[in-house]
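Support request from a user on the community tier.

User writes: "When I paste my structure tokens into the form, the page sometimes reloads and wipes my input. The last time it worked, I copied everything first. Here is what I submitted, just in case something in the input itself triggers the reload:"
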């Protein structure tokens, strides 16, 4: 019995030692609207190279709009806007769509990015090889929403 317990402890220790550190989650915050139909978000991206970090931050911003929305924003300005709620009701139903896969793989989302500004040039270490950087990302939300409607990812009047 004692050998079984010692074996379990050693196995658990080996499993924990071999686990890779998970990357820092992307922190996303609403920054405001420049003009009607656009929005500005603060997104923290991660990766090993500058281009990879920018790509990660942009993808996370669009995934946030599609699947989560910006529900934690408390400003009076956001309470009456469309982007407070997610664009799609169920992530599982649209995530496997070839259109969305191509949208992110081909970097088609870049046509809706109106601004990409690095907020801090100090790369914070997330793990041995990965770094994080915060960005201010401007998105043409109205054009993005129309594009998703035209490609039948979302319906015009909600989910």
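"...and here is what came back when it finally went through:"
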């Amino acid at each position: 019995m004692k050998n079984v317990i010692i074996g379990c402890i050693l196995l658990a220790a080996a499993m924990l030692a071999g686990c890779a550190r998970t990357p820092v989650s992307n922190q996303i915050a609403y920054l405001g609207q420049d003009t009607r139909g656009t929005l500005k978000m603060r997104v923290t991206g991660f990766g090993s190279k500058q281009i990879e970090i920018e790509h990660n931050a942009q993808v996370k911003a669009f995934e946030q709009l599609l699947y989560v929305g910006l529900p934690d924003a408390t400003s009076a300005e956001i309470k009456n806007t469309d982007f407070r709620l997610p664009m799609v009701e169920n992530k599982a139903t649209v995530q496997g769509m070839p259109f969305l896969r191509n949208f992110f793989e081909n970097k088609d989302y870049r046509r809706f990015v109106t601004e990409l500004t690095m907020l801090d040039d100090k790369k914070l270490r997330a793990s041995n090889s990965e770094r994080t950087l915060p960005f201010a990302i401007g998105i043409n939300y109205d054009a993005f929403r129309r594009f998703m409607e035209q490609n039948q990812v979302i319906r015009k009047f909600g989910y």
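Agent notes: The reload is a front-end session timeout and is unrelated to the input. Residues 24-150 form one domain. The longest strand covers residues 38-47. Escalated to web team.
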